């Protein structure tokens, strides 16, 4: 009988559905929405309707941006796909229940209801919130009968609160074609101090870092005025997190199918989504990447080390870069006869597996308390507020510790070690580093006076250390005399030329028979003033990274402008990669190290240095190798010197090399970190294949190396791309991952390319789930007629195809 009534209701709905005005923002109970109709919010921001994601045939009810319909932010029936879809309807009952009805079955229901006598309506708001409310009530969250913001999917929109309710939090889609609840979630965790956690099933994947009183300690990015989330606390518990709604800035936080948390904003001008950040961002962000008592430092190679006083538990695995086993104490603790603590600065605190928090204890009390309990392994201030406050103690393993460059100096961790170990460390430091002041090490021997003496000593030392650093800041870049350089290079003889770049020739030189240098003699086209040039060089000299060539100084006299670099023994990467005889020196493990090194150098230039530097001419011949074949990027910063009169986003003078340039840069002069990512992708493919993109030819097609890689990818035989001279010495999964990442880097549209931090993450993480690449951006080479209004000047040396395109249009 109930069924009969129901069919009656359907017929009733059908009869009245004609009155629904497609594109309105309100649905009344006497109306329905069919598959061809949508609700559109008042200012046309969001749209609600039935859709099929990607290549799926299934139908879902969802909300998406009107301007970018492929960006779906919420799905009602995500776990109830509609596989057959003759008569699909969305309707609101007079009792305030929203139902999706297919034929005679309710596929999905909001299960909401209100008291009799009121007039419910369904309203799609400009915030993206779908609400059921009384028509007479104002638009106010507390008066909603039901609203979609209470049921987050994979996207957090501004105004939407993630709460401690176990059902709250983001859950990823299964795949891009299947919105049902996937393996990943993003939730508030109040175990110990509050933090946000991305989980994979039951296991953790990424932790934001604990709340330190000001922000989530994993990174000051939480302080960004635009993206700083609003957090509500109940005592010391975090009960909700949300983003502030601002009508003039569209933004969203998405947990994607591979478990990456991604923050996007839309610029009003071009309706493009910009990826602001991704978490996890690098391998060190992977939960417990270095195992128990390990510490992850992204700037080092290898990135995992044991905490001081610890050694690898399984040495063999550790040396093979399987760090999951972690570390063990070198010497056991000696609880009764005295343990002490070693200070570790600027770290993301270890996970709180077993812990104790007491907000009313000072750091001293905390230390004493930790020392008095033999199972306490570390302590720290809980908050950084008031110069450090509260006490946090760990018991048992210290897991997921990572170094955070730029972390608050109050965020220090004190790790328990036996006194014998601490003394050893002190001795070692003094031997290795006589001139450098000793780091503050607290050894608690139970004698309070000694502690106080030590602490005040430490303060003096610290102050001195601070002064020294400040002095370094003023350090001027050495200015070389022209005469010195002339002598060193044998008056710039042709024999000493070791390369030719986009900005001028490079000479090898010898300073007073001792130190070897490389001299870059800049062509006189920079158009930059002398002071400006000097300032720029001084700035660039401060960029220091193991994967960047070191700038030693410069020479400015008359018209001459030269940059003096360290000389590198082993020439450049192209010298090895393409040459049949030398290539055997670069077997796969070395090639992979080189790839990672280049990626780290580029990441440093893009994100981690004080200047944001876009290289603009990354290519194999710009990667130099030192005696151990470590890669060092050269020519960085030159683009900055030559480009300072141009706007950041677009240049009239395109400096670069065909075969490596991203389409938008080569054609429109638009450059960004993403154009460097493109060049990196090309370099990566060249290293894997041992072939040049530009000179590539194949008997069966006319594509370049990128095109060839794409064809092989589509046919699922990418291993055919691998340099045959590698003789199967490679790890298949690693090579495949490299090729996939390379294809992602050379995507046609900049927004589809990953940023360098993601590249490093994807390359360095075994088993990472990578997005599927689409067709790469082909660049039509040398079609001179296509370059309207542009003059190309190619340098004499045809091997070095560096070009400059000068815009002839009047400025
Ligand atoms: C549907 O209901 C709304 C509000 O209750 C009313 O304004 C509208 O006239 C109704 N339409 C029809 C066709 O009954
Ligand atoms: C609304 O609720 C009343 C009382 O619970 C019930 O009798 C009626 O069937 C409901 N109507 C619909 C359309 O669900
Ligand atoms: C509504 O209730 C039904 C039956 O209890 C349940 O299966 C369904 O999951 C609920 N729907 C939602 C959206 O919670
Ligand atoms: C929403 O309604 C509640 C209760 O009616 C009221 O206390 C609150 O101030 C309202 N909030 C806004 C933003 O209007
Ligand atoms: C309007 O919302 C308030 C809650 O803020 C609720 O108490 C009241 O019943 C609502 N009015 C109607 C007519 O439903
Ligand atoms: C909203 O965003 C705009 C543009 O970013 C900004 O100028 C404005 O100050 C913001 N408004 C608020 C209330 O934050
Ligand atoms: C926190 O520390 C204070 C001072 O040592 C102590 O009095 C208090 O009992 C501690 N609180 C808890 C919950 O352990
Ligand atoms: C040490 O601390 C742990 C955790 O609070 C506690 O369970 C244990 O009883 C303490 N041991 C001693 C000897 O106080």
UniProtKB/TrEMBL annotation:
GO terms for cellular component: plasma membrane. Residues 783-811 are annotated as: Disordered. The chain crosses the membrane at residues 440-461. Keywords: ATP-binding, Cell membrane, Disulfide bond, Glycoprotein, Kinase, Membrane, Nucleotide-binding, Serine/threonine-protein kinase, Signal, Transferase, Transmembrane, Transmembrane helix. InterPro entries: Bulb-type_lectin_dom, Bulb-type_lectin_dom_sf, Kinase-like_dom_sf, Pan_app, Prot_kinase_dom, S_locus_glycoprot_dom, Ser-Thr/Tyr_kinase_cat_dom, Ser/Thr_kinase_AS. One of its GO terms (molecular function) is protein serine/threonine kinase activity. Residues 492-778 form the Protein kinase domain. Residues 24-145 form the Bulb-type lectin domain. It is a single-pass type I membrane protein. Its main location: membrane. Its EC number is 2.7.11.1. Residues 1-23 form the signal peptide. It catalyses: L-threonyl-[protein] + ATP = O-phospho-L-threonyl-[protein] + ADP + H(+); L-seryl-[protein] + ATP = O-phospho-L-seryl-[protein] + ADP + H(+). Residues 335-418 form the Apple domain. It is found in: Cell membrane. It is an enzyme of class 2 (transferase). Belongs to the protein kinase superfamily. Ser/Thr protein kinase family. This is Receptor-like serine/threonine-protein kinase.
